[in-house]
Design a protein that fits this description.
By secondary structure, the chain is an alpha+beta fold. The protein has 13 helices and 7 strands. The chain starts with a helix and ends with a helix. Its cofactor is FAD.
Amino acid sequence: MPLTEEHKAEIDAQRGQTQQTARATAPGMEARLYTAHEVLDHGFVRVIDYMGDDAAICQAARVSYGKGTKSVSNDEGLIRYLMRHWHSTPFEMCEVKFHVKLPVFVARQWIRHRTANVNEYSARYSILDREFYIPAPDALAAQSTVNNQGRGELLEGDEAARVLDILKTDAARCYDNYEAMLSQEGQKGLARELARMNLPANIYTQWYWKTDLHNLFHFLRLRADVHAQYEIRVYAQTICEIVADWVPQAYGAFEDYRMGGVTLSTKAIDCVRRMLKGEAVTQETSGMSKGEWREFEGVIR
């Protein structure tokens, strides 16, 4: 379990503290505040703090309207307009701070999204816990034969058991050696900042990750996508559920125009027009590469 009884008691205590505030609050986010949502075998996501709501997005957008400019009276209509036309600044008025527990190799993917404030658990100062991500059987897959950065068929039987045994054995051995290298009574040992280099990439770390809604949507568009790696996708999907409760109108527009929408190239639009006229367009006559055509077919079919 990712949370100990001590951690659960601490979270309950945080949720039990209430204070009056004059600032805008989102009921859906208030219900989620501090709660740890479990992800993978030992990980979690929880909201530590947030600022703004759907109304804050509209407020920021309308402040730029000068005299005589047409105003949008309907908040949802305005938010959908902003999303549809890529007006990102109003969405930056909302911010959220997450506490995330995740495997190191997932953190290394996640940190590529550089538009956030991050503070990670220090393995120079503290000793990391003996917690490793071990994939469930339905997450063990061979290398894809068509995608150099994807998975193919599931491993089964003896092959799956062999891989799981390697993962568990190596993780345990590395941590045993990590502990053995640390300073103990009767020996100087190795500094924590050096001993940590022996730990595998599936060990868990933690961080606080703060970002604005515009950049969070960008993260979710990439990482909640079906093509994203499973281990980061499940974190993104959990965050999607949280954001849907926080800013339901903005998230609805995001689902429509970013998650559910597509961007077509000039060649793709030309092919669609030709198809609507009854022409049988093929990859050879489309002007697209095989990869582009395969993606285009995936969209239209």
